[in-house]
Specification:
2 domains, 7-stranded mixed sheet, two-stranded antiparallel ribbon, alpha/beta, binds S-adenosylmethionine, Helicase, Ruva Protein, domain 3, Rossmann fold
Length: about 280
């Protein structure tokens, strides 16, 4: 991986604007040109795309996205980044920056801005809120074409894994219900300023037109999934009875499990997405 121009650009921006990377906003800026190019490549950015970038920071990725996409909307919470972005993005009239918290932003309005363009999310995400951001993007009902994001390697693995792994959980099932995940690039800490204390990976989620399993009430299925992983060492029967969001009797759950040919004492962590969908349809 090359490590040349962006590193010196980042360091001169940091000095000029007296930027102090804010831990509370998960600020670790990408400084590796090779990795930045690979993200744009992995996302398959083209001139029919409206790219929505979460957390542009100092604009290293934004600039590259603007060169390839039809339009870029970048949402940044930290107002100290705005003058930097104005400077870095000068001359790109296809790019707008919104200073806001992505979790409080009307994403539907943003996605509808350029009708006819494919909307893709591309981001080096702030790690402290990866799960809420990814979950809300997936559950939004907005038809993003794809979501290509840098996350902690451990979280990328959680998104991709299935039953039998200790990393399997509610996030894996949400990601796999809405999309086909693929880890594209592993990125070491040296590619960032300041260096994060963990390894990072870029994962691409290709969103399905139709989910791979049919379930009558997806929201109810996700309540069951969340309840079973909240007490993952307990049997599914106990977890669903104890959780205030489900409160399903042990008898009802064990009857449904038997109908599905599953051990009534099974734990939720052993069930596939298909089995959760079938169970949910019996319990709803
Ligand atoms: N894209 C830049 C890069 O790759 O160098 C910066 C990535 S940095 C890991 C995460 C960015 O997300 C920071 O700029 C941070 O200020 C921003 N951020 C953190 N929380 C946010 C939120 N709730 N809404 C929007 N942006 C946020």
């Amino acid at each position: 991986m090359s490590n040349s121009n962006q590193k010196s650009t980042t360091m001169s921006i940091v000095r000029k604007h007296d930027i102090k990377a804010q831990k509370k906003y998960g600020q670790n800026f990408l400084t590796d040109d090779g990795v930045l190019d690979e993200i744009v490549e992995a996302a398959g950015v083209c001139d029919r795309d409206h790219i929505v970038e979460i957390g542009p920071g100092l604009g290293a990725l934004t600039k590259r996205l603007a060169e390839k996409a039809s339009h870029v909307t970048a949402i940044e919470i930290d107002s100290q980044m705005i003058p930097v972005l104005d400077e870095v993005l000068e001359g790109f009239d296809n790019t707008r920056v919104i200073c806001a918290d992505v979790l409080k932003t009307d994403m539907k309005e943003i996605a509808d801005t350029y009708p006819g363009e494919d909307v893709k999310i591309v981001a080096n995400l702030p790690y402290y809120i990866t799960t809420p951001i990814v979950t809300s993007l997936l559950e939004s009902g907005i038809h993003y074409r794809s979501i290509t994001v840098m996350v902690q390697t451990e979280v990328a693995e959680r998104m991709q894994t299935g039953p039998g792994s200790k990393d399997y959980g509610a996030l894996s099932l949400a990601v796999q219900y809405y999309s086909k995940p693929e880890i594209m690039i592993d990125v070491p800490p040296e590619c960032f300023y300041p260096m994060p204390g963990v390894g990072s990976s870029v994962i691409k989620l290709d969103l399905y037109e139709e989910p791979p399993v049919k379930v009558s009430d997806p929201a109810f299925m996700f309540r069951i999934i969340k309840a079973s992983f909240m007490q993952r060492r307990k049997t599914l029967q106990n977890a669903l009875q104890n959780n205030p969001d489900t409160r399903i009797s042990r008898e009802k759950t064990s009857g449904a499990l038997e109908k599905l040919g599953l051990d009534p004492l099974i734990r939720g962590e052993a069930l596939t997405l298909e089995q959760f969908a079938a169970l949910s349809d019996l319990l709803v």
